[in-house]
Amino acid sequence: MNIVARNNSELTKPDKLKDEKKTICVLQITRIGDLIQTFQACETLKKTHPEIRLILIARKQFAKPLDFLSKNIFDKVYLISSNLFFSNEKDFSLQDAKINLDTFLTKLSEQNISALVNLSFSKTSGFLSSLIPAKNKLGLNYNEFGKPTIIDKWSQYIYSNVMGGSLCGLHLVEIYKLIFGLKPSQPEKRKKNTVIYENIIIHPFSSHNKKNWKVSKWTEIIYRILKDHPNYNITLVGGDKDLDDSFSIINSLTLKDLSSRINNITGKTSIEELSHQLLKADIFVGHDSMVGNLAAYCNIPTLTISLGTVRAYETTPYHSLAYNISPKTACFPCFPDEKCDTFKCHTDIPYQLINSCINQLLNGESISKSFLREKISPFQLSSVEILKANFSKNNIFLLEKIDPEDFTLKCIFRVFYRFSWLYFLSSIEESIPLPILNKSTYEGLLNYTKGLQNLYELSEFGKTYSQYILEEISFKTPNIIKIKSLSRKIDEIDRLQILIKNTFPLLSPIVDYFSIEKSNLAGGNIVELTESSYLTFQNNSHVCSMLYELIEQTLSNYMKKTQLSLHQEVRK
User: Fold this and answer.
1) Is 240 exposed, middle or buried (CB count within 10 Å of its CB: 0-12, 13-18, 19+)?
2) In this structure, what are the phi and psi dihedrals at residue 525, rounded to the nearest 5 degrees?
3) Is the previous residue joined to 333 through a cis bond, with omega within 30 degrees of 0?
């Protein structure tokens, strides 16, 4: 085992824990981009509650390069390497692995952890979280029978809505804050850079080929930037694995006469050095990646091109200077394990549009509705979704459609779920406009009211059958056969909800969330479990009611607008 414990206040002396200080341990063993987003949430936690000791457990290969950020946030960091359980040594045994694990857990037990927050939703992190000693645990864990358990509501939301689909309208940093129980707040506004460096940072790579364009497309973009802005230079950044592609870009015939204005530092900098480079840039352009998240941390304007598996609403750089361009391709975003040979979403974003947006930003202008309609052809706009980052009146990160009349049915439901989940899970009343409908989305939304009504009625039946079971149990001699019959009816309701989900896929977030909630019912006996089941069906009814009310209001707004337009036409 290779574990490194780093104490940012005392590197050599053991911690002297104070009884009055609560210790929160964050488990995040995913990649660097996820770590940076975790840091952004933890930074808010630390500043809101400076009395808390904050500990991080992360993978060494991802967390070690971020020391320059983590040292300002965490009191102690545990770096775990891939050989935590096993070794390549010939005489290494399972017993040795157990000893290593016990040693690690003993070190953690000395920290007297008040709450362990698992922000990595994988089997590995779930089992590790189950073993770590802590008084309270949030996020994914596994019980003594090896079954996944998620107690807190926002973690249930991640497991059902974020992991299971693409209708989440909340940023991951925002969700992490909500898991911590923090009130919504905007990130610290770091000092804005007023110097014009005439330098553009471009990161044309990503962790998966589904998420990034081929070299030829980026070559065209870089060529147009350098031609349109003769005073600007470009800095190309990336990791060691991107070296070949970076050489292909700068050595292309298209850029032969412009290569002197391209500074290729791919694979040549540490992440800390990269952050210094970002501070000397006017804008960042690239695919969804760690570099974009780091640019947000450095308060640099970002233009992100989201492709493949990327969920823009969840992972766009978390600051108000971000723009995001993604395709309207029906299969976007996809899942990592889905095979794709055509990469249609890659062709649905024209590079000419990207160049126009970059030019607008470099000229000191915003990408606005008027700019899109006056300067960009409808043909280029027809296949893309262009979003601008902002914060709502409740200080919650928001990706707004620049053209508010360009809502698809999927986008409309994403907004509805943002309203519903924030209110249901945290009693936050979101204050953003309802979506604007057209004839197609009006008809689609009207059709979905049928599925929502069916889902609501099933939840009401579930409440009724749960109540019948409780009444039967209350008798001195309960009828076991009747209880089993009622239980089968509840099982049938679960199956019917799945059928509704398959028929009306945009209702999946509700069905999936309450399926997770029901699999984590609280209680140690049949009475407590049935009471919990009743509450789950009741919660399901409440969310369906909220969603139905939002749909009704949106449909009503559309009808009023249509009638007004007809009235105006008649008067003419």
Assistant:
1) exposed
2) -145, 175
3) yes
570 pLDDT more than 70: no
Give the model's pLDDT for residue 176. Answer: 98
Polymer length of the chain: 572
Strand 302-305 relative to strand 322-327, pairing: parallel
Q: Which contiguous run of DSSP H or E holds residue 218?
A: helix 215-228
Burial of 95 (0-12, 13-18, 19+ CB in 10 A): exposed
| pLDDT tens digits for range 497-551 | 999 999 999 999 999 999 999 999 988 888 999 999 999 999 999 999 999 999 9
Count of CB atoms within 10 A of residue 231's CB?
Answer: 8
* Alpha carbons 329 and 343: distance in angstroms, whole number: 10
SS3 90: coil
Q: What is the pTM of this model?
A: 0.92
What single-letter amino acid sits at 427? S
Distance of CA 180 to the CA centre of its chain: 15
User: For 35-93, how does the pLDDT look when each residue is reduced to its tens digit (9 = 90+)?
Assistant: 999 999 999 999 999 999 999 999 999 999 999 999 999 999 999 986 766 666 777 77
Q: Which fold has domain 199-403?
A: Rossmann fold (3.40.50)
Is CATH 3.40.50.2000 the classification given to domain 3-180?
yes
Distance CA 157, CA 245 (A): 38
Residues 178/214, Cβ–Cβ less than 8 Å: no
Ranges of H-type helices in 363-429? 369-375, 378-381, 409-426
Average pLDDT over residues 308-330: 94
The amino acid occupying position 204 is P
Give the type of residue at 411: C
Give the C-alpha separation, 213 to 385, whole Å.
17
Instruction: Return d(Cα 78, Cα 275) in angstroms, integer.
Output: 23
In the chain the first and final C-alpha atoms are separated, in Å, by 81
User: Count of CB atoms within 10 A of residue 7's CB?
Assistant: 15
Q: Which of 40, 327, 369 is nearest to 211 (CA)?
A: 327
Taking Cα atoms as reference points, which of 33, 32, 119 lies closest to residue 315? 33
Which residue intervals of the chain bear CATH 3.40.50.2000? 3-180, 199-403
Q: How far apart are CA 430 and CA 174, in angstroms?
A: 13
